[in-house]
Amino acid sequence: MIKYGLIGFPLSHSFSKKFFNKKFKNENINNVVYENFELKDLEELRLLIKNNSELKGLNVTIPYKEKALDYMDEIDNNASNIGAINVIKIVDNKLVGFNSDYLAFKDTLRKWLKADFQSKALILGTGGSSRAVSQALIDLNIDHNFVSRNKKNNYLIYDDLHKKSNLFLDYNLIINSTPLGMHPKIDSFPEIPYELISKKHYLYDLVYNPEKTKFLKKGEENGAKIKNGLEMLYLQAELSWNYWNK
């Protein structure tokens, strides 16, 4: 039995196990199973690999997308540039890291935005997913900045957006790369000045459960175009399968 799986903590929010096992059944992919592996510490990864010789690939989710780089024997160029991985291919006990979040986000964003979109973007959050978003925006020639809870590098903080309203209005694309609003904590949302949101804005939430987060609802109420992370989620999963089998 060939095995694939997901590592992270916690994994109650994950869709991957259901998605892949349904895929295996629908496409008559036999003797293959996908399992969740909750790791409270990434050091447990070594033991997981050792105890599961049939394991051929893993997806990586919160909070290990950046930390997992240190455990790889090889890293794909895109993943190395981004500084985060969400796919691990296991070949002869060697771990090879890839980033399918980046390609999935870039493809879905490009299809969603109007061809003449010219504004700047704000990335809410500075974790592993934000790095994939940033690289995609670079590829699409969209100038952007990060918003962090704490002052670091040249990032903005949430207070900046409230105190400098003119600054906030320079950014018509706002991407939530944080887990705020994700089930079960559906009442949480990024603290941005929603009163300044208008029909000029595009709000993209990487969260997919619930389908419409508080972040998206608040934007929609003010006329913004909204998109959740569901399409990206399906695409990154299919890209993961491609990486494991190429």
Secondary-structure blueprint:
Blueprint: E1 2-8, H1 16-26, E2 32-38, H2 44-51, E3 55-60, E4 74-75, H3 77-82, E5 87-91, E6 94-98, H4 100-112, E7 120-124, H5 128-139, E8 144-148, E9 156-157, H6 158-163, H7 165-168, E10 171-176, E11 202-205, H8 214-221, E12 225-227, H9 230-245
Parallel strand pairs: 1-2, 1-3, 4-6, 7-8, 7-10, 8-9, 10-11, 11-12
Antiparallel strand pairs: 3-5, 5-6
Helix pairs in contact: 4-5, 4-9
Structure, described:
With 246 residues, the chain is of the alpha/beta class. It folds into 2 domains: 2-98, Leucine Dehydrogenase, chain A, domain 1 (Rossmann fold); 102-231, NAD(P)-binding Rossmann-like Domain (Rossmann fold, 3-Layer(aba) Sandwich), CATH 3.40.50.720. It is built from 9 helices and 12 strands. The strands form 2 sheets. It has a 6-stranded mixed sheet, sandwiched between helices. The longest helix has 16 residues, at 230-245. The two termini are 19 Å apart.
In short:
This protein is of the alpha/beta class and 246 residues long. Helix content is 34%, strand content 23%.
